[in-house]
What does this fold into?
Amino acid sequence: MVEYFFNQEKPSKYLMEIKFQELLVNILSLSSNPKIGSYFKQISQDVKPSIQNVMEANFIYNLSLDEFARLTHRSLSTFNRDFYNVYDTSPGKWLTKKRLLHAKTLLEHTQQKIYEVAFDCGFESPAHFTRVFKTEHGITPLKFQKAQLTV
It folds into this structure.
């Protein structure tokens, strides 16, 4: 390594990056200093993914709140608290509203069967989807979809 610093010709930036990475790997793989490895591990795990990014990318999947919390690297209670700070509502209510909005769009613009829409939007069953949709919109998804065809 000393040769790189005292040589007339400067090493390439790419080579220096590789050598720096190699140095880090060597330091972290030494069992004689476990504290430095622990420190780097802690730093790498402190970065929490954005709740908004995780929720927007995954709301269509039938995941539990525990699974959403895990995706955001938070405990369930921290996830619920942080979620409320971002969206000003509970995760369950937000998921239902978001899934219903997506379902409404699918019903308006596709010819998918009701059970396909239900599963594509993350609902646990077509019956649950129908019940929630009717509560929100006052009409069943099938009647809503048929009404869109006549418009």
